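Follow-up to my post from last week.
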Amino acid sequence: MKNPFRSFGVFILAAASVSVMTGLSPAWAQDATFVLNARENGAPSYNPIKSTKVNLGMRLIFDRLVDQDADQSFHGLLATSWESSADGMNWTFRLRPGVKFHDGEPFNAKVIEWWIPQFKGTPNAFMTEAIDRVVVVDDLTVRFVMKNPDPSLLFNLATAFMGIPSPKAYDALGDRFGVTAAVGTGPFRLESFTIGQQTKLVRNDDYKWASALSKNRGAAKIRRLTLREINEDSTAFLELKTGGVDMLMGVSSDFQPRIRDEKSLKLVVLPGTEVFYMPINTSVEPFTDIKVREAVALAVNQKEIMSGLFGNQGAVANNFLISSLQESKIDPKFNISYNPVRARRLLDEAGWVVGAGGARAKAGVPLTVKLWTQNGTQFKRITEVIQAQLKAVGVNAVLTIQDPASINAMYRNKTDHQLAVRSYDYTNADILDWFFSGKRLGYPNVSMWNDPKAEVLNEKAMKGSRTWEERVTNFKAYHEYVQSQWVYAPIYQPTQTFAFNQTRLSVPDTVRGIRMTVQSIMDVEVK
Amino acid sequence: MFGFLIKRLLLLIPVFLAVSVVIFLIIHLVPGDPVDHLIQIGSSPEQKAELIARIGLDQPLLVQYGAWFMKVVTGDFGDAIVLRRPVASLIAENLPHSLWLGGLAFAFSTIVGVATGALAAVYKDSWIDRGVMVLILMGSTVPSFWLGLLLILVFAVHLGWFPVSGARNWTALVLPVMTIGLQGVALVSRVTRAAMLDIARKDFVLLLHAKGVSRREIQLRHVLRHALLPVVTILSLRIGWIVGGAVTIEFVFARPGLGSLLITALNQRDYPVVQGCLLILAMAVMLGTLLGDLLQAAMDPRIRENMQ
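User reply:
Got it. Predicted complex:
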């Protein structure tokens, strides 16, 4: 008599084989959990129009008109093509057909006509400030009539803040939009959101309009994606190690060697979008003297910081912008690099002579300056090294460390600070305006720099450029002038890193876009 | 007793008023404001000024306090500025997590602490006593942050018995409860042991021994009962801590809770949230103290007499 259990076992094996061959894997096998980069934790809502803090989820729920690649090029997403008039006063966008919101409503030109005015009165209003009105040309064509040329329009349209929500849902939910529900056209729908904890997303099975930056142009391969917010680096690492999560969207430098040691884990390094720098308060002594400013800037040994603190990972910063931006490619003579010999000579010329013990003084006043930074391991470490580097040229720096909110308020007192170690994370040359415009003295213009020539160059770069190329040229000119005035010292450009469990996930070798974000997540598969 | 209770409840009103003023002033006098978290790179100073006016931060402090307090007395904690939703709903989302974590840790530390303290007192100078003293020393000196990570390493990573972090189900509570509980055990155990040793030296205990009452009955029915009075005092002071004292643990274990909410709001200077959370914490401490007093009165007739 045949063994019934053996027959049953064969049956099960056959069924399993069939299901594998037909791709009917168990539902849970298509689920993944990612831990957000700690910088993105605490986003209060999924309302792209009103939010000032966004996370990865925003890009997964809402599509934008365009997408941006790492080489700064733009690719169509909800727009298939666009053109600008020669004077930059009209932009015409052709929209992708067949796109629907998660609530079934159609995406068309009327949506864009509704959408742009929604920004008025919101923190993101400046993104659409240059648009005078939206003209519906036909169901799938819109024209932006501009108040003034805005060559950074495409950049703005590619940001997560310009994800397009469903007008019907947005109007119906009012202030609750993005809190209890969020409706876009993106590859994932919002299932639930607990602020500061996690976001649960489910695949939009109708999705078939990903940008050319994704290999997979159809529905995402992950069925259910949970985005967790974990503030403690150790906890996040241990979750990845034990399989509690599948990917960390940011990995602190302390844990990168540990991840490299784990066979099941893989660390991926991408070019960074952050710059560490040291603003110099140009309005207080001794930094009203440009020689002293130049001296402290040249005292910063960027290479030593990169090698000593970050294991040679990343890049030194020699100017204010990330190196992938065209506007960072200024005349090399304006780049700022470590030169202690020149730093000492400049201080001598400025009258700060070396006394007993190596400390400098002028007319009996010691060269002691305040060096501020915010709390956080990286900031503290970098600041301590800079303190030592300044001491090596005879500048005695006294450290003050505060939480970010307090220190930003303290900068607004304008004359209390002298030097500071700060960072920013931004991928547009506009950042020069934000940190050095005379309209924002104190904070964010911590350098307290208000220079008439700089203001003219800034205005020309921000509002006087008709085309992208013109904009690059004008920003380079402004950037070079900023460099020439020694209002800050560039320090370091960290890399971006993410890590994943390679036994669980298949991740494309090439990550498109500026970060590991929706374009590449479309191609991520759960094994 | 009833009169005492009414008097204490009425006293809570001026205390509540004073606490609300202190809470309001503290957060408003600390440098920083929520506006930095509401403006974008690229926004103009005029937009910032408009935002400040819209939120009402340009009003005099007294006006701001009055507006907030009038809402609070009607049960409305206002709307979070940065987190953009009613403060009451934020608290309602997070408070249950804190209550579960804090409550279980409180119960754990009370039960285990009293038991180990009593054992140490009964078996004074034995290996049991020494073991408990080591436990007390470790619990008092080991930082909770470090202890939490150690427990994660042992029980979640190496043994795989519990999840590393999160709040998905009851298993995610075990390690955080143990982390907080073990530190509470140290305190309760120390107080119990000291109190029992103190009571054991009293004349009435000597009399009980002379009367031939069993050692077990003396310890459990007489000595422990008297020793619990100072323990109740300590525990009542820790009741407020149940609600918001687990910030570090919530951070390490990535758990929701009132402590985490408070820290997030503090970093963002989200005034209504900070004020709401601190008010809840203050009320918890006030009510906890009152409860402790009532328990003590219930346990000790001398205290009841004084009240009357």
